[in-house]
Design goal:
The chain contains 24 helices and 29 strands. The termini are far apart. The protein has an eight-stranded mixed sheet, sandwiched between helices. A seven-stranded mixed sheet has the order 8-7-6-2-5-1-14, sandwiched between helices. The protein has a two-stranded antiparallel sheet with strand order 3-4. Helix 15 (568-593) packs antiparallel against helix 17 (605-623) and helix 17 packs antiparallel against helix 18. It folds into five domains: 2-51 and 60-121 and 130-182 and 389-444, Response regulator (Rossmann fold, 3-Layer(aba) Sandwich), CATH 3.40.50.2300; 185-293 and 299-323 and 454-488, Response regulator (Rossmann fold); 338-377, no CATH class; 509-557; 568-588 and 603-812, Up-down Bundle (Rhopdopsin 7-helix transmembrane proteins), CATH 1.20.1070.10. By secondary structure, it is α/β, with parallel strands linked by helices. It is 45% helix and 15% strand.
Length: 848
Amino acid sequence: MRSHVCYVLGLFVMLELWGNVTQSPIGAYAPGDIVIGILGSVHSKVEDLKGRIRPEMFTCTDFDLIPFVQSLAAIHTIEVINDSGFLPGIQLGYVMCDPCIHTTKALHCVEHMLALNGSLPVLSDYSNSSFPVKAFLGERYSELSIPLAKLLSIYMIPQISCTSSASALSNKLRCPSFFRVIPSDIYQTQALAKLMTRFSWDWIGVVSLDDDYGRSALENFLLDAEKEHLCVAFQEVVPYLDHTYSRQRIKEVANRIRSSSARVVLLILQPELVEMLFEEMIKTNTNRTWVASDAWSKVRNIMKMKDINKVGDIFGFTFHTGNIPRFEDYLQNLTISPGVRNDFIREYKQIRFNCSSGQQSEHTSPSACSWTDPQEANDDYLLQAVDLTEAYSQRVAVYAIAHAIKKLLKCNDTGCSGETNFPPWKLVENLREMNFTLDNQTHFFNQFGDFENGYDLIMWKSNGSERFSDVVGKFLINKKEVEIYEHTISWSNNKVPISRCSAPCPPGTVKNISDVACCYTCTICSEGTYTNQWDQPTCHNCPNNTWSEKNSTECKPRIIRYLKWNEPYPITLMVADLIGVLLLLISFTIFLVYRSTTIIKKSDFNMSCLMMLGLLISFGSVIAFIGRPDIHLCRAQQIMYGLGFTFCVCCILIKSFRNFIAFMAFDRDRQHKLGKLYKPLVIIILFNGGQALICAFWLIFASPDVDTPSGQSMYINLLCTEGSIIGFGVMHAYIAFLAFICFLLAFKSRKVPHDFNETGIIIFSMLIHLFVWLCFIPIYITKNEQRPIVQASAILVSNYGIIFCHFIPKCYQVLCEKTENSWPAIRERLFAAIQGNVTKGVADPVKN
């Protein structure tokens, strides 16, 4: 009951607000609880603008079927929403005005639709103000939408456009209440530039409209063209609205196109001006490749022009479209419901079905005279004359408003609890947060009030003497790349058109650009660089581990050099390493067997075994130098040697300290004090712990790693880098420091009695170590490619120096010298015992 009462009251209120409809610019309306304003330029021309001196009513001409059908799509969607109960108990109404593509008339339309009691109130604060229209749909052109958006921002009334794409409308400081269900032109110009790059069209002409839309689109395109290294051969501007001068200017533009070497032309124009330009092209049989802006990319009037196939290939971008359910039936059965007014439907039917010869036009039906009342007539002409998918965005826009209203009024399945006479700014607030699903697609406005659903790339294909549009690709905003369906493109000359200032540069060469970016000569790529495609701006550096000769189209894998297992020197290293390990094992076995002998006891069996363990770890580090380096091997090379050899030197340090204490026998007091410091286990833990800390900090802060291959030839050495030179230096300096202390202590105690003296072998072994690593320093500093070989050799020499100074002589003494417990002495006593057994019957001659 409430809905019907509000409906009737709404009708009377609207009649009261908008007065006598015959004197009003309102062309269509339907009452409702909430009214939506529709701005649609059904007429494309205003008469006598030049002679206009009085603020009288405008006279509009040239009925345009495209905006007419788009307005019908909005009305149809409103009726569907009302019938579906989407807003339970709420009836949506609409009021429509025709701006006739004229800014002043558009402002007059809005002023009239917002007027209360015939006037528009002027207040300092509109926060609590209510207006008869809660939201606006339109306008079609950015030139009109921009001033309307600024006006409506005063009252914060939402305006949703389906086609105005000028980037200026994304500025929320200037147009805070403006929304659109399409992307901004900043993305369309990106798509246009990407398309031209995709087909290598870098020498192009541009013709744009002298209005806000055209200037903004041109500015954005020039920026995007520069990023894509495209060059504009010419720029021509056509005036807006001045139809008399426009035709003259179009002729001048046509001559400029004919004389230019650019074979691709971008047209950022209104459909009427494109039609004029194509007429001029057809007259002289001028063939070019044309790229359309969204303003005319799917206009059927141009597709049906006489001899349209002569102008050449035509590409364009259009917004994602769809089909409106039951809209075709609606258009074939156009009627005006009771209580609803629609002068535009009446005018269309008068044009289509009026039999009067004086009023016939290109849209007049051949069977017009068979109808006594044009208003009762219907046919499917609109389905053939207009691409209905272009009107799909009207459906999306209306549903966006409906979803915002539903949220604002807190509607459920049975009713809405909110107040219908709300201030429009609340609708703006809801639209900004709106996220809704329609026809299995999710829609929402971004922070600039725009959709980001991308574009379809279309190509005009021949259909007899006419053209039709076919989707041949797409541009997705998030990817910023044009995807082209190659198999769907059919070129007029069976090949891709060429539009270039200079001949293309083949692979292996690069463009040497002159004063104009797209005019150039070709230069051969140098060593280490290549190009594998035509017309490259720069030669590409060969990626890691590859190299190329001059004029190359590809890079070949570099020959990586490292110590391979099957090469002579690594084999030598392995043999030397294995011999060293074998000597250690033999020495350990001998020491273990003869650990009770005086020689072994004096050598400190336990400490000697620990030395062997340290050397074994150090020998293991040599193996890490062989094979393809990785981070683990690079770490193992340094850390195993650092910890292993430090452990060995610490043991030698204990021996040196023990000899030094023995040397201090002449000073019993000092010997007693130093003797308290002789704690082998503590010394080993302390000094090895210091090296462990150094290695730990090294690994944490700047670990050794594989050096990135670089160089200027086909051959490259794959090496380990030390990571931190400080860590590398401190580790080796620490070992050298311990070795030097061993040397000093041994040198000081060299006069210890011979039976207890190991100072000579300690001095000699530490000198070997220090000398070897002093020789290593210059090679390391110069970063010679033989660095790993030299370091591995230095480790082997240092290890062998310890083995041949500390272990081999002891083993020789045990096995070969004639001492009480040596093998020769034992052998003689065994032999004598055997002989005595035979002669005297002695059973056990060997006594220890």
